[in-house]
Amino acid sequence: MSKLERFLESLYKKYRTLNSGKLASYIPQLANANPDWFAITVVTTDGKVFTVGDSQENFTIQSISKVFLHGMALEDCGRAALLEKVGVEPTGDPFDSVIRLDENSKRPDNPMVNAGAIATTSLIKGNELTERLNRMLEMFRRYINRDVFIDVSVFMSERATGHRNRALANLLLNFGTIDHNIEEILDLYFQQCSLVVNCQDLAMMAATLANRGIQPITNQQAVQSEYVRDMLSVMHTCGMYNYAGEWAYRVGIPAKSGVSGGIIGVIPERAGIAVFSPLIDQQGNSVRGLRVFEDLSQEFGFHLLDVSMGKCNFADCLESD
Ligand code: DON
Predict the structure, then answer these.
(1) In sequence order, what DSSP letters do the residues of 127-161 get, joined into one string?
(2) pLDDT tier at 310 (50, 70, 90 boundaries)?
(3) pLDDT score recorded for residue 229
(4) Could you confirm whether 311 is annotated as catalytic?
(5) Cα 28 to ligand 1 centroid, rounded to whole Å
(6) What pLDDT shows up at residue 311?
(7) Confidence of residue 189 (pLDDT cuts 50, 70, 90)
(8) Pick from 319, 316, 310, 229: which is nearest to 268 by CA?
(9) Ligand 1 atom at minimal distance to the Cα of residue 190
(10) Is residue 242 in contact with ligand 1, taking CB distance under 6 Å?
């Protein structure tokens, strides 16, 4: 067994009884999750998979999709056009906040909050909704390397209850930041959140970003490598919402969370990590996920700015002894 496998096992045992946090319930379908689900997966940039727990359990990706739609919007309209519509500034506010979306800026602060994600979603090219949806699914397929689908009941649940998102879209329409059918844009936004994934898929997606946009198994370019820098920078500063500063300080790697309990983290040139546990805190981040990432970062020296202890030789930790 490798050092990494041993450590993953120990983290699983250490945190599986940590039961603070709550299931997300503002989207009614998410409250059906099993609070005991727990998985940790690491995928290296050369495609090795290390995993413990319920790594094949399906759940909806939720806000982690925002990272990948950001990449797609960059490819579809380029950096300059995207920056005109959506900034790259962390908000320090909850992910669904309306507060900073004002008449002066007319643009959401960043693509990781809901307002920004709705704006990036409006930039996805395609003649009608079906074409945009199919392009989006094809994009996710490149990262996950299997057929992908939408959980229709979660999609319907989000669509029926997403009043704040509808308010954000209406404000963006009023400002002229988005200029076409908001119900179609919202559908595509709710559909991306309702993509079905498991923990291993998420780690593979993170590993693809760690590998300059090249999927480690297929060697296919999932996203143009020139845009991976943009995606990771925005994850680093904005991916954990109003916990982003704390996360950058404690864990120190680009990451993104979702209210269904997933968190992905990217260690450039080395690996992608995903944790899944549906009990979330007030900021919308998985409680066990935060602890697992903190311990992993500490143990393997993943913090990108930590030069004090030198980098451990991660490759050695992957070898069985
Ligand atoms: O817009 C929403 O409310 C959800 N579909 C996505 C929320 C989410 O995951 C935010 N993250 N923590």
Answers:
(1) SSHHHHHHHHHHHHHHHHSS---B-HHHHHHHHHH
(2) low
(3) 98
(4) no
(5) 13
(6) 59
(7) very high
(8) 229
(9) 5
(10) no
| Annotated catalytic residue within 259, 266, 275, 287 | 259
CA of 45 to the centre of ligand 1 (A): 28
pLDDT digit string (tens) for 41-72? 999 999 999 999 999 999 999 999 999 999 99
The catalytically annotated residue of 55, 63, 257, 286 is 63
C-beta 62 within 6 A of ligand 1 = yes
239 lines ligand 1 (CB under 6 A): no
Check if 3-62+197-317 and 63-193 are the same fold: yes
Q: Which CATH class is domain 3-62+197-317?
A: alpha beta
For residues 127-148, average pLDDT: 97
Q: Is 234 a catalytic residue?
A: no
CA distance 243 to 247: 6
Cβ of 151 below 6 Å from ligand 1 = no
Decide which of 1.25.40.20, 3.30.450.40, 3.30.1640.10, 3.40.710.10 is the CATH code for 63-193: 3.40.710.10
Average pLDDT across the chain, whole number: 94
Of 13-17, 133-137, 275-279, 306-310, where does mean pLDDT reach its minimum?
Answer: 306-310
Query: Which is the closest atom of ligand 1 to the Cα of 95?
Result: 10
Closest CA to 272 of 204, 200, 217: 204
Q: Which residues contact 130 (CB under 8 A, 6 or more apart)?
A: none
- As a whole number of angstroms, the distance between CA 174 and CA 74 comes to 24
Which sign does the torsion angle of CA 242, 265, 28, 34 carry?
negative
65 ligand 1 Cβ < 6 A: no
Q: Mind listing the pLDDT tens digit for each residue in 104-136? A: 678 999 999 999 999 999 999 999 999 999 999
